[in-house]
């Protein structure tokens, strides 16, 4: 779910910069670990003056946000949208030595005469991804996050099924089907355990886009998180004159199967055509659809109910995989316009 104005924010809850609970974030960058520096003061977000803002300050900020190494200081003016004129500048400057865990631990001095032309910015490394280790394939295994160059397992106590959904999406796998703890001895991690807690809605593109916070725990590898995702989803139209028409087949668990037409409508046609890079659905009469013939073997999906806005058929509600009350005379067929080269489907 894209944030308003396509801003990417990184937010961390920590000790109050002014003695009470406060937060810090980066606004307007290409990812959550880059942007204009803002801190929360009395329930409003304020910018930070760049006087004394240096690589030591950036290193502390990157650490507080759970990002990778500090890369550079930037002027906050390069990040859009333009700072509102009525947004305040923070009343203090930060003097950091680079080893503090958060900006709240840095020395502070009064900021005098700063304007938004002097807003501070920062660029940190975006922590590299996530993997599922020691499973039967890349879409099943122990969750590991690469943090500051080291792969760390994740404790189940700070995990959720929403986070599992994000991991499966980030890895290009199918839907999350299982998250559990207590991997057996053969699949337990051996190294570090991630010292952060991810709070995901389940809609994020990657785990790095979830809000996160430093989390003190006493977890052991007996509590390593294990996640299982469905295999990558695929679909095709077969029996037609091109890839934009034919009987619909979907790939699940390495096997192609057909889709039952119970509940199928033009909204679902639209999703399929878009996913295949074709034009608009043509909705031909039943006689035309039947010319593609019945399938054989598996019937994977039934009662598919799309809104038409889904980027993938996999995201449309349906019965569980393989559950149906159909035969192959009810196989779905779809006919789309041929997409003309150089034109985009509106």
From TrEMBL:
Signal peptide: 1-19
Pfam family, one: SRCR
PROSITE patterns assigned to the protein according to its UniProt record, in alphabetical order: SRCR_1, SRCR_2
SUPFAM superfamilies hit by this protein: SRCR-like
Source organism, top-level taxon: Eukaryota
InterPro entries: SRCR, SRCR-like_dom_sf
Residue pairs linked by disulfide bridges in the UniProt entry: 96-106, 155-219, 168-229, 200-210, 306-316
A GO BP annotation: zymogen activation
A GO term, aspect molecular function: serine-type endopeptidase activity
Keywords for the protein's UniProt record, in alphabetical order: Disulfide bond, Glycoprotein, Repeat, Signal
Domain SRCR: 24-125, 130-230, 235-337
Cellular component GO terms, alphabetical: extracellular space; plasma membrane
Keyword Iron: no
Protein's name in the database: CD5 molecule like
The organism of origin for this protein: Lynx canadensis
Name of encoding gene: CD5L
């Amino acid at each position: 779910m894209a944030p308003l104005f396509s801003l990417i924010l990184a937010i961390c809850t920590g000790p109050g910069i002014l003695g009470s609970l406060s937060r810090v974030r980066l606004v307007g960058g290409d990812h959550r670990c880059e942007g204009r520096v803002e801190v929360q003061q009395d329930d409003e977000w304020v910018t930070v003056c760049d006087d004394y803002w240096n690589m030591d300050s950036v290193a502390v900020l990157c650490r507080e946000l759970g990002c990778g190494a500090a890369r550079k200081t930037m002027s906050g003016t390069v990040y859009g949208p333009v700072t509102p004129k009525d947004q305040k500048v923070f009343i203090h400057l930060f003097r950091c030595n680079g080893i503090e865990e958060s900006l709240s631990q840095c020395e502070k001095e009064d900021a005098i005469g700063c304007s938004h032309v002097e807003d501070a910015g920062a660029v940190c490394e975006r922590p590299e991804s996530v993997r599922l280790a020691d499973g039967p394939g890349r879409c099943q295994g122990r969750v590991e996050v690469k943090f500051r160059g080291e792969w760390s397992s994740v404790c189940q106590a700070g995990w959720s099924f929403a986070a599992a959904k994000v991991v499966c999406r980030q890895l290009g796998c199918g839907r999350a089907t299982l998250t559990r703890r207590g991997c057996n001895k053969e699949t337990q991690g051996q190294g570090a355990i991630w010292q952060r807690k991810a709070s995901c809605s389940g809609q994020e593109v990657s785990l790095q886009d979830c809000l996160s916070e430093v989390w003190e725990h006493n977890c052991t590898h007996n509590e390593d998180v294990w996640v299982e995702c469905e295999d990558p989803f695929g679909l095709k139209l077969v029996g037609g004159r091109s890839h934009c028409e034919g009987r619909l087949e979907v790939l699940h668990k390495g096997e192609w199967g057909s889709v039952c037409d119970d509940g199928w409508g033009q909204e679902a046609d639209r999703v399929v055509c878009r996913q295949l890079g074709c034009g608009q659905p043509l909705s031909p009469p039943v006689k035309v659809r039947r010319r593609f013939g019945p399938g054989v073997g598996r019937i994977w999906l039934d009662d598919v109910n799309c809104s038409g806005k889904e980027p993938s058929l996999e995201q449309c509600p349906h019965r569980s995989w393989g559950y149906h009350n159909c035969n192959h005379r009810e196989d779905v067929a779809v006919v789309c316009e041929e997409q003309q080269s150089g034109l985009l489907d509106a």
